[in-house]
Structure formats: structure tokens, C-alpha cells
Amino acid sequence: MKRQEVEVSRNRTVHLLKEWGIPVEFEGKPSPQHFGNWVLIGRDRNVAFRFVCDRGDLQLDLMPASVYKGPQSNAESDWYTWDVVASAANLPFGGKLDPLNWFFSYRDGVSRAFAPENLVRVKHRLADVEEEKRRRFTEGRRVRAHA
Q1: How far apart are CA 69 and CA 26, in angstroms?
Q2: Helix/strand/coil for 22
Q3: Structural domain count of the chain
């Protein structure tokens, strides 16, 4: 992807978030240990979000706002991918929505899931969904012992 196309995509993402009333707290490059062309981090009610663009692929990570410490202060393990959050919160996932439009479409549901009164239950669900995702990923990769 050309530099100009990446920049336009970041500008479009920032513009849409601001148009939707969702504040962006940080714009820049990902931390040195991560890949990507740019990162946007902010908060919307009960959820902190991180959009990362890596070679034209937009990714979305989410965490409860109560856990969020600052733009680059949280451990990587505090973030959940949007498919994990969608599954844990029983929100639709897949189809034709990209991460940005999914977040806008289901931000009320994500905010409800990460609300203080739901957080303990949702954190258990998030752990279960992540464990299942890891199990499915590694299932076909196991080396079987010879009999």
C-alpha cells in the first residue's frame, strides 16, 4: 500500500470517529515491539479502543475503560480482539462490516458488556472465548506421538 493511501485511511478513520462523537486520545505509530503503520487509541463510555492499521489491514482491539491506563501504558494482554469481544458479549460478528463500522454499529452493546455491573461476568466469558479460540487454532497443529 502506498504511503498516501495509508495516510488517507488514518485520516478517514479519525474523521469518522470524531463525526460519531468518539474521542481519539492518541494518534501515532505503534510501540516498537508491535507492527503497523499507525495506531489510534481512545475511549467511548465503558470501553477503550485501539485501531491499528498494518499494511492496509485495519484491526480493532478493545478493553474495559476501567482497566485502561493510558495510550501506551497497558499490557498487551489487557486488549481483546473484536471477534473475542463480539462472541463474549453475544454481538453479531462477521459479514461485511469492517472493524470501524462494526465498532460504530455495536458500540452500545460493547459499552453495556464492559459496564461495571457486567464486568465480572464478561471477563469470565472473554477468558472462555479466548481459550476456545486458542484451542481451535492449535488443534490442527499438534504433533502426534508415534504408537
Answers
A1: 13
A2: coil
A3: 1
